[in-house]
Amino acid sequence: MTSAKPIQFAVTINAPVPTVWRLMLGPESYRRWAAVFAEGTYFEGSWEQGTKMKFFSPPSGDGMLSEIAENRPNAFLSIRHLGVIGHGVEDTTSESVRAWAPAYENYSFTPVPEGTKLVIDLDVPGEWVEYMNDAWPKALMALKQLSEAETAS
After folding, report:
1. Cα Rg of the chain (Å, integer)
2. Beta pairing partners, 91
3. Of 21, 20, 38, 31, nearest in space to 149 by CA
4. pLDDT at 125
5. Positive or negative CA dihedral for 17, 137, 44, 2?
6. What's this model's pTM, rounded to 2 decimal places?
7. Sign of the C-alpha dihedral, residues 79, 143, 25, 34?
8. Selection from 103, 80, 83 nearest residue 93 by Cα
9. pLDDT of 102-148, one tens digit each?
């Protein structure tokens, strides 16, 4: 039984799907839009289906331990969050982690006449819902600005 709550965010971006996909997942562009969550946020790993991913928030170096559950390029990406990383230690078995894991973060990319409709579906532990409701719209605006600026140039 999980205490994670499903929440959803959507944005229409005036840029083609391949541009939005590349800028959402590229190491440098990811740091730019994900800075909304924590300055310097980055990932280690590969976006390939079945691979392990680690998402970190400096300066603590704490983060999330995840795996790519599904990757259909330029269409759909599913991240399965399995645990947390604290002080360099991976935790997938503590009671606090088992209360919400696994939790999914799904990105759906749909071509629309204006460019791309991006929908984010998340499973979020209850205590993080307010934070995510504040941060995700800002992160999507940052991704929209990056994507539209590149398309315009």
Report:
1. 15
2. 84
3. 20
4. 84
5. negative
6. 0.92
7. negative
8. 83
9. 999 999 999 999 999 999 999 998 888 999 999 999 999 999 999 99
